[in-house]
Amino acid sequence: MLVVEVSEMAPIAVALCLASALSYAAAAVLQERLADRSTTVLLRTSSWWVAIGLNGGGAALHVVALRYGPLSLVQPLGVITLVLAVALGAWTTRRAVTRSEWHGIGLTVAGLGGIMVLAGSAGDIGVLSGGQLIGLLLVAAALLTALGGWSTVPGASGLWAAAAAGVAFGVSSALTQTVAVHISGQGIGALRHPFVALAAIAIGVLAGVGLFFAQRSYRAGLAAPVAVVALANPVAAATIGLVLLGERIVGGTVGIAMAGLSAFAAVLGVALLSRVRADETPTEATGRLQAELAEADAATNPGG
Q1: What is the secondary structure of 137-189 as a DSSP string?
Q2: I want to staple 58 with a disulfide (CB 3.0 to 4.6 A). Which of 11, 20, 185, 259 is the partner?
Q3: Which spans are transmembrane here (predicted)?
């Protein structure tokens, strides 16, 4: 396993993660407003392409962050996207963030913060070997197929799709770290190595799959899907780090127990956020839908 020393570059990784989270949050707000549009309509909607651009910008910043910090540090910071997305969503619809939303955000952020503190590394950035890469892709394909199948069951929660998106993004981050480290050490010629090239291709495929599932998940609202993606993403990435890259849970058995409690708190936060839209009154829901439809129509027909 190839490793790269991590020195005092963590603050750079954190700053890049903050910028990435802001870009992702803005994209999520746009995507949630277009959640009920068909693919054909989306392709003709300018705000959809803006969201794609913002997602691309967030991904690029995330890639650079992985060069300056380990996966277990960079990935959990994505939870900031949740706070920013809910705040931006409320601001753009001229409403206040509700108490339930703040409580859900607080639990989710606290839980993921605990995971971030407890998930450490041996001071190195590890990358996947060829055998590990193949095994990871097979497991990821099976898991995404299962989650995607559950999300299409009639009456199923859109949060299954959000979980699939989070897993796709988390695995993509692990692969991105591997490719970034190889290119940093060997230059662009590293892509001539078969397993590095395979990882690069898989990154693009997983990013597209994650975007597809995320768009589908926003039919369940904004806060809950973003929270599920924010939870599934670092859990998937941390699992890869712990199992394959030599990272570890700080504190031994006690640390594992605390990580479990942190994960439980994050799940409670997601559950609370998933109730926010369900608690809307008919008048609130109608007003929200009318505003979203008007904005989507205006974006589709700017001259109208």
Answers
A1: HHHHHHHHHHHHHHHTSTT--THHHHHHHHHHHHHHHHHHHHHHHHHHHH-GG
A2: 20
A3: 46-66, 73-91, 103-121, 133-153, 159-183, 195-214, 220-245, 252-273
